[in-house]
Amino acid sequence: MSKDRSPDTLIRRAKQTRDQADALEEIWLKNALEDVAQAYEWLALKLAAEPTNAIN
Length: 56
What we know:
Layout: H1 7-22, H2 27-49
């Protein structure tokens, strides 16, 4: 798995996205960024639960 798709990286991106949303005043944009953060977390959980592929 590439480093930019690791669960840790995705969780870090979720936090950064939430930090960006907190700095905004437009509620619709905050909501959109929260959706993005949740998507990063969902993907991180999905990747973390995936069995690792053995390299032959």
